[in-house]
Amino acid sequence: MTDPDAFWPLYRTEGNTWEMKKADASTKLRSFNFVLTLRSVLIFKRTPGRSIEDLSVEVAYPISGSFSFSVAQARRKTLDLRASGGETAATLARHEFDADFSWLSLYTQESSLKYLRMVNAPLHTRLSPASAGLPGDDADDISIVRENWIYNKAIEEAFTGSSARLLIRTGTFNVNGKMPSQDLSPWLRQTKRNSEISGWISPLKAISPLDILPNPVDEHMTTSLGASSATLAHASLNNDAKVSDPDLLVLGFQELDLSTEALLYATSTVREDAWVEAILAGLGERGILYEKLASKQLVGMLIVAIAKKSRLSCFSDIRFSTAGAGIMGIMGNKGATAIRMSYTPLAQEISASPTVLTFVNAHLAAFDEMIERRNFDFHDLSRRLVFDQTDELDSNSYANTASETSRRPVGLFESDVLFWMGDLNYRIDLADGDVRELLTSFPGPGNVPLLLKYDQLKMAIASGKAFAEFSEHAITHMPSYRYASNTSEDSLGYDRKRKPAWTDRILHMSAPSVSVTQRSYCSHPQITLSDHRPVSADFDLNISIVDKQRREIAASKLYRELWGVEHSSETPKIKLQPMKLDFGKIPCVYRFVTADAEQPICPQWLKIDPVVGLLRPGESSTITVTVFVDNSPASRLNLLPPRLDFTLILHTALGKDHFISVTGEYQYTCFANKLARLTRLPCPVRSMKSPNDQVPAQQLVNAPREIMRLINWLMTYVTDPIDLFNGLIEERICINIREEINSHPPSLEKNTLLDSLVDPVVPPYLHARCLQMTSRDEAFEVWISLTAFLHYMSLQKLSSQSSTNQAEMTERLVLLRDDSIGLYTPVSPIGKRKFLLHFVG
Length: 841
Known about the structure:
Blueprint: E1 10-13, E2 17-20, E3 40-46, E4 55-62, E5 67-73, E6 77-83, H1 89-92, H2 115-120, H3 138-158, E7 159-174, H4 185-188, H5 194-197, H6 219-237, E8 248-254, H7 261-264, H8 270-282, E9 290-298, E10 301-308, E11 315-324, E12 335-343, E13 355-363, H9 371-384, E14 386-387, E15 410-411, E16 417-423, H10 432-441, H11 448-452, H12 456-463, E17 504-510, E18 514-523, E19 535-546, H13 548-562, E20 574-576, E21 581-583, E22 588-593, E23 606-609, E24 612-615, E25 620-621, E26 624-627, H14 631-637, E27 643-652, E28 657-665, H15 675-678, H16 705-717, H17 721-726, H18 731-743, H19 750-756, H20 767-771, H21 776-782, H22 787-795, H23 803-811, H24 829-840
Parallel strand pairs: 7-8, 13-16
Antiparallel strand pairs: 1-2, 3-4, 5-6, 7-19, 8-10, 9-10, 11-12, 12-13, 14-15, 16-17, 18-19, 20-21, 21-25, 22-24, 22-27, 23-26, 27-28
């Protein structure tokens, strides 16, 4: 090389990306000659929104022998990599080479870490930024859409028409360093059986010296098992409607070993073996149908997978991963263990495509104030949990399948279904006394939905700070932490020194190709050996059986058919018709784009499906445009002229833009308005011709007519307001009520009207001040609106209703509605209730 200073140095930077940066701003590229032996060619790509000097690796091509490199200037800049002998780069990249290029997977822009998140994101969000006249990177967009389309189309063509059902039971249990000393059957089995009713207990083997004989009622089952256990197990799988035995149990334990030695060196498997024996014993007479599939332990965290013997052959490519997040951010007292496996349904005469299942058992940072650390640990563990090749299978696992697997490390989200369970340690953002009062005011789960509004994990998911892509079934059980263990307890059994919380959670996310239905989500207070209560969740997976060979053939055929669209000399053309789109003679990728980079593709009240697509020659597509107005868009439309006009822009990749006009007429509504605006309406809102139809400020009324009419109607006709606001109203009646209140009085929908207001009746910034009021007089000084109605409520006190219940009913009127955008911290519902009691007590 004659001029080595002409090159920019290549650096490895944060985020596992490579960036090429100029060493000296005055350095210029000059002509040079060089001879260099190459092992690979890297194609760099500029990251949108970043400097041209910051590049990331997009594609890495392995090189074998001689090759030629040419740059062609056609319709756009392209790179043409050709191997000697006329072999194309696409074919070349598929060949096997002796060189190992797996290290490049950590530095490519499309990291496997984002696989599951990527497939769940809308396709148009993965395309380059584009607007009218500024199409973006059409060639790259074509590649993304084509890959997505081929993937789905190949699966569709290879679908056999049948599906397989896989029942999975997951569980999490922080055992607080205890050894098993209780029956675990409530945690492990969903329904009680006749053997349980009769009092029969399964033998505990090594855990118990007891040797209990089998129940005579089940002797015929034992006999059948002795003859052919596999046959009986398979028969039970085909009768899942009657027997809900899971095919796979995956259980996560935390604080399995609290000894100091466990942090310093690997301990024996005595505790693991004891808990596995307890699990099999807890399965009762069905335990003989199961066998341990795999397990992995990191200090006090243990994850165990137990499968039906008849299904063991369906599981393969079992891998493990661990990551510490405890002391100094690396010790294993906190962190996660994970198991990854491939499940291939049994199918005759075909080789079915496998479904990848990943299970994570995590233990995150404790204490109420450590929420940011818990959020950080989630993202850190998501990045660090990487599954290497299968070279460390547990010696007690079902089979070592290393010979069947790829040697490439894979990320946590490179799965079809991902389950995340454990002691996540998220707490409730309310005072300890308020939490206990809400739990005790209604026996059972009556106030659980109200408490969950202040759950840290729910808020982290809603804000996108952690677990944003995960789903969690509705929680109906009492908090699983912290129960008293040899300490002072309250009336519910919780430790008086620690606030109750739902620390033990089970979440999941799945690719669109797998249908996941959650059947249950509950805690098991019968098991009292720890200060936590175990939690379980049942999942029903419906897996489409896809012929693997047919899918590969279909994908190859479709790829050849659609390859080179971005390099075609023909311009894609489409013909718009009122009901469909007709495309021209070459494959075409289309997408809707914005008119301006700062605007959305369509207004909030309009929905388009699909937003992006691919069509082959001769095909047509129907695009559905739906209008839907709820409170959010209505609050804007109420301030605009009633005539709606919008232009949709349909862009064909490497082609023209097409413009579609959308028009409509909006009918004003009193819902989704501000109270101040309602006080200046000169007539029923339906009669308004313009949003500027308002009376002068000096003529405004003291309170909105719509609300006052509601109050007058309630005070005149309603005898039991408790039933009125607690009952459900049919949708047809709701529609009629809304039309009535928009046109002329009266209406029953006071609750819906107040909830639709842009600003709550009591502004959020006054909520904290309201809670500081200690007397009725102070309360009226802070809040004077609607006092007539609240006074009416105080006069309607019935013998069967306490003032507390009246306050709860009044609270349902959303007078103290929380701030929906998060500018103000939600205040305690107990404080709201006390404030309302000043009016109804």
